[in-house]
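go over my protein:
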Amino acid sequence: MITDLFETNTEAWLIWFDGGRYDYFEELYDEYFTGELSKAWNGDIGYTGDWAVRHLEQDFSGYGLFSSVTLRSARDVDYDGRDHFDVAPRIETEDNSSMKEKLATLGYLEQSGELADTGEEAVNEAVLNHKSDISGGVIRYPKPHPPFDGLEHITSGASKTRETREALISGELTEPELHEAYRSTYRTGFELASQIIPKLDGTVIVTADHGECLDCGQLFHDRYHRPHDHLTHVPWFEVESVKD
């Protein structure tokens, strides 16, 4: 589907939500867009870098890849978009770098510039800076992937699964609250997409690399996930218009 998108359209954009399961997309999209929604199977992929290695390792000459964070496959192989796209972020950044340092390394902020509220907003700025020189591209927002809005203290970092599970067991967090935080984070992704889409020309598709398990026996899952509809069913949505 991705190959066809770029081969059959003079100008095309793929907006990529990280961890965006289909059922919540179906629930929320009508608040932001009109268009045609279909359900796609992602090939049993549960890890972002593996999705990039499978779908973005082809010739994207004339297109750009925009992301505020770098990509690594389950085999710990860095995906470098510069090998495939005309415009793509650099990948040389330490894991313990600050967000400001990472954004500067990716080319989205000057070293001395002010830090944007979120890296995703800097991605939109980068798209606008480059769009006149390319025929479209791939725009990645790491939403609604954890950390979830309002639950950053337990859904961030390598310990997020353990800390979230412990909070659920202790009663500090309820499953409805976890789902609502995921929904809120999804809305953040929709809002970012709705800001950039009116400024893009050509065909615009919104999709996701994989979904997210919240209550299907593998909280947040990981690269060694068990296939589940909440992980492997993702949206494929062709945007007609953005609602005011």
